[in-house]
Design a protein that fits this description.
alpha/beta; Rossmann fold; two-stranded antiparallel ribbon; 10 helices; globular; binds adenosine-5'-triphosphate; binds magnesium ion
């Protein structure tokens, strides 16, 4: 099997990469796709926390890459969705010692059994970025509408063109309609135009955003609607993008 390898990256930290990865993963898995979320970031508030799986984590990516642990022993299955798995990151130091070749071998192995391998990239553009991006074939750049985040995302975009990434797409997260209406923030469309990257997702600012990862199925929830549309796009089911800031909300 040849699963899709998609890296989620941003440049600037804290813009919502892990949240977007978790939600996209949940939505794909709800549809029956076999999904693994690879946490390629070190730190505390990572994917295991976003998915509420931190207590089930036994081993991590580093131990698998170094051949100390079998991949199937390190994978953590989601509590709610059978087809959703997590490969946790090491807590604390260590990941910087992992070279791209070893990391790629793990990703290759995952792509043999999963339909989607979603890689959560660390912020910044150092070794961790290189490692995560080298193993991917597609990339989703996540930014907020803030100018500093857009600037960093743009730098990452230029850098990505030096890798063999075939599909480069943009998700704008934490968008506030009130600020868009007052003209106090860049619109998702204008960010996409500025960066010359196709816009595939517009996620609203939403205090309950992490609850969605527990499969909140309320169709009225704007964030959920945004993720449904994003996943339809990723799966190639539509070329339309749901942008809640537009009068004509479905963009062609
Ligand atoms: N659409 C949203 N609305 C409100 N809060 C959000 C939204 N998206 C993410 N957040 C919150 O923003 C914070 C940062 O999100 P997250 O950890 O996903 O970012 P990140 O880009 O992965 O950060 P890092 O670079 O540190 O890995 C979290 O507290 C998360 O709950
Ligand atoms: Mg993160």
């Amino acid at each position: 099997m040849n699963g899709r390898r998609i890296v989620f990256t941003s440049g600037k930290g804290g813009v919502g990469k892990s949240t977007v990865v978790a939600n996209v993963g949940v939505e794909l898995a709800i549809r029956g796709e076999r999904v693994v979320l690879v946490d390629a970031d070190i730190g505390l508030n990572n994917l295991d926390v976003a998915l509420g799986l931190e207590k089930k984590v036994k081993y991590d990516l580093m131990e698998v890459a170094l051949g100390k642990v079998r991949l199937k022993d390190a994978l953590v299955r989601d509590d709610y969705i059978d087809t959703l798995y997590l490969l946790p990151s090491p807590k604390g130091i260590g990941l910087d010692k992992l070279n791209s070749t070893k990391f790629m071998k793990v990703i290759d192995e995952l792509a043999d059994v999963f339909d989607y391998v979603l890689i959560d990239c660390p912020a910044g553009i150092d070794g961790g970025f290189h490692r995560a991006v080298s193993a991917a074939k597609e990339a989703i750049i996540v930014t907020t509408p803030h100018i500093s985040a857009v600037r960093d995302a743009d730098k990452v975009c230029a850098l990505l063109s030096t890798y063999s990434i075939k599909n480069l797409r943009l998700v704008v997260n934490r968008v506030r309609l009130d600020l868009v209406k007052k003209g106090e923030t860049l619109t998702p469309e204008s960010i996409s135009r500025l960066m010359r990257v196709a816009l595939v997702g517009v996620v609203p600012e939403d205090d309950d955003i992490t609850l969605f990862t527990l499969a909140n199925t309320s169709k009225r929830n704007l964030a959920r609607r945004a993720y449904i549309s994003l996943v339809d796009y990723i799966m190639g089911r539509t070329k339309d993008v749901y942008d809640f800031t537009q009068k004509r909300r479905w963009l062609l």
